[in-house]
Fold this sequence. Notes:
Chain A contains ten helices and no strands. Chain A is mainly alpha-helical and 204 residues long. Chain B has helices spanning 2-17, 22-36, 42-54, 59-102, 106-134, 138-153, 158-176.
Amino acid sequence: MIYLRLFYEFAKAGLFAIGGGLATLPFLQDISARTGWYSADQLADMIAVSECTPGPIGVNMSTYTGFTVAGIPGALCATLGLIFPSIIIIIIVAKILKAFQDNKYVQSAFYGLRPASTGLIAAACLGVAKIALFDTGAFESVKTAFSGIRWEAVILAAALWLLMNLGTFKKLKGNKVLAKISKLHPVVFLAVSAVVGIIFSFGV
Amino acid sequence: MKELLDLFLTFARIGGLTFGGGYAMLPMLQQEVVEKRKWATNDELMDYYAIGQCTPGIIAVNTATFIGNKTRGIIGGVVATLGVVFPSLVIITIIAAFISNFADLAVVKNAFAGIRICVFVLILNAVVKLGKTSIKDAVTMGIFLLVMVGSLFLDVSPIIFVLLAAAAGIAAQILFKKGEKAA
């Protein structure tokens, strides 16, 4: 029963992903590896679509995945699955809010959870880098991994990173144009990248 | 009934106008929930955000459930949460249908090849921002590195890492009394 399975898999992601939308990414990679519902390439596309549409990224990703796997009912099941644990847990937490905030063991658990969550997202980020910056199949041996680097992609990535971060550098902080650029909405950077990809035929 | 509808519509509007996840939602919540409807104070909103960030699930969903639950009880929590996800469900379903028809076009392939590079840089930025608040000493740095390397090279579910990290946090607090810094 594909609908129940979707609900169950995304409920698991919703239950264990701590710290917001991108925290669901490692779980989505895990689902992809185990079920084969979608490929790593498709997942990267899903992230892109989620990034440039409104709404919580995690919800967008679950809807997109659910729809690709089993149409509109699939989208509903995956998204309801994702938010189901949150609703239950938050309603319980709201009732014991005070005790929850002050308990030192709960606090230390979170102290350990936050860097772990960051580590999981960092690993997922490297997974996206592998797809975006290298030719597929380049990782079959150490030799081909280097020859598989797509330099035009590396240059675009470096340019994007500079545009997003130059305004925050100490020496350049006074520069209003750079500060404005670094505060631009992600949609703008995504749109520019799409145009660059089309002009220089990045997909071929 | 009218209040529930109001909750649903308000959170649907917030969900439909927020680009880029939970943090982008905060100014919208302040305007709609605190100033206009007075369903919560700014302090409460910050508490919900802090807790929503370290409880399972998406921050936006967690915050919506908190505010709905506070206003109209459990049904309020459910209605506000359905409201915040409703625009995404509709918009993404339409886009997914549209993109699956056009995914084989060369122009779409080229655009997505460019977009993927941008997604990598956006996530990289998010990781750096997260690291600045979550990695604050040797213990948290160790957990970060172990989890990152572990999930790159081991075929283990992320759930295992999350549970082990929580245990490590409690162990570190008992051993070095570091847990207090978590607040």
